[in-house]
Amino acid sequence: MSTLVQIGKSGEPTATDDFLKGLWRDNPVLVQVLGTCPTLAVTNTARNAIAMGLATLVVLVASNALIASIRKIVPKQVRIASYILVIASLVTIVDYGIQAISLEVHKALGAFIALIVVNCIILGRAEAFASKNTVVRSLLDGLGMGFGFCITLLLLGVVREVLGSGALFGVELFGPRFQDWVILVLPSGGFFTFAAWLLFFNWWKQRRAARAAGGGAR
Question: Which of 51, 105, 152, 204 is such that its CA lies 20 to 30 A from the CA of 168?
């Protein structure tokens, strides 16, 4: 029986599982419902969604690797403070990097770049995974969770920009007669779009589970 998640002969998760779980089974936004603040706030355009997703991905991968490498030398009493210091340092580097690459994108993301420091996905993976596993496994976990977060933001950004302004990455799609769904580019539109994707994602999971159960019964 083929499954998305591969398990080794010993029953332990494989390297493939460490990466793939963040894309689907344990997606940080659609399953764990974490990081919803930037998910709702910066996905009014696909470009902003990709920029925030990639910034979070870089911080998540780097922080996971660094925390996994120092996990045995950091006293338990100060581990959370140490993790936050590592994450804050990386966010500062990413912030200056985005500012150097594109001032326009930096202004569009605004304070949400700095708020990556308190993104519960990053601190949660540091505490729940990187602090207990090797550097390689932590890198794969960060990549999977980061790409899962990035893909989710892009899904929201595409829907909101296409329907809300009739464009994608700033390119007009439907011509002057298209009536924009202006509500989708407003803050409330983030909630509506997020709810729609959550509904679709859960429907798809239930459908797959029902098919698997039906196949097993036969």
Answer: 204
Amino acid symbol at 21: K
DSSP 184: G
Between CA 94 and CA 96 the distance in angstroms is 5
| 8 Å CB contact between 35 and 29 | yes
Side chain identity, residue 149? F
Q: Give the tokens for residue 54.
A: 């990639």
In which element (H, E) is residue 172 found?
strand 171-172
pLDDT band at 94; cut points 50, 70, 90: very high
Determine the Cα–Cα distance for residues 201 and 208; give it in Å rounded to an integer.
11
**What is the rounded distance in angstroms from the CA atom of residue 52 to the CA atom of residue 30?**
17
* Interatomic CA distance for residues 174 and 57, integer angstroms: 32
Let me know: does 39 contact 29? Beta carbons within 8 Å: yes
Read off the tokens for 58.
Answer: 């870089």
Report which residue type is found at 139: L
C-alpha–C-alpha distance, residues 70 and 130, integer Å: 10
Q: Which band of pLDDT confidence, cut at 50, 70 and 90, is reported for residue 144?
A: very high
Q: What is the DSSP string of 91-153?
A: HHHHHHHHHHH-HHHHHHHGGGTGGGGG-HHHHHHHHHTGGGS-HHHHHHHHHHHHHHHHHHH
Is the pTM higher than 0.90? The answer reads no
Hey, is 169 helix, strand or coil? coil
Domain extent listing, the chain: 15-217
